[in-house]
Amino acid sequence: MSKQELDSLADAAGRGPSQAARDLLRFIRKEKLREPGLVMEYGIPLINSKGALGEDTWVVHEQVCCAALDCADLAAAEACITALRRKFPGSTRVKLLVSMLSEARGDLEAAETTYAGILDANPANAVAAKRRVATLLAAGQTGKAVAALNDHLEQSPGDPEAWTQLAALHVALGSLDEAAFCYEELILIAPADPHHHCRLAEAYFTLGTPDAVLRARKHFAQALELRGRGGGGGRARALHGLCASCAA
């Protein structure tokens, strides 16, 4: 994707033809761009023009709803959700939008309840699982967020973002054994990533037992080897950790 292509489509849409605006919105969806301003600018007039969207009608409603939430235009988001609920009663995708609207309004309890209901029906819904974790963290319920991440990882054990977030939460809670387990899982997913080796080594070193310190040396050394001879803070961090663990 080039910025020139996006700018060209936006210029064409700005000249007025509805097809150009549809092409712009389709391009933003295809490239998974986060351009809420453009989506709102060209999506709302298309929605208000009866018949202008054709087969794109409902996907553009969803797209505009997400953009409206990004722009804190809750009235526009609610209008899109109302139309989508009327067309697709009981739709899981619409329920996700309803929960996101609840989040935007600050009603975290309602949002979490809806996400939990979606997951009861389909535990493998990754979007609902991650939104639920975010909602629980925003509500200050770290313990429940950890439990929700564990539930998600039972369904999607190869999700590196979830393992990374769970590791960070365990570190913040002082649960270093659990954090080390998370980093071990990340190394299984991406064994050549020096960052994971360094983080695992730090968890082991902080545990402080003789066996853990030996493991820390191994992973600090592995992080250095994977980083090669390049400079940067990451290499210095691993080198400092290796020196500290050898001196322990």
UniProtKB/TrEMBL annotation:
InterPro entries: EMC2-like, TPR-like_helical_dom_sf, TPR_EMC2, TPR_rpt. It comes from the Eukaryota. TPR repeats lie at residues 160-193. Coiled coil: none annotated. SUPFAM superfamilies: TPR-like. Keywords: Endoplasmic reticulum, Membrane, Repeat, TPR repeat. PANTHER family: TETRATRICOPEPTIDE REPEAT PROTEIN. This is ER membrane protein complex subunit 2. It comes from Tribonema minus.
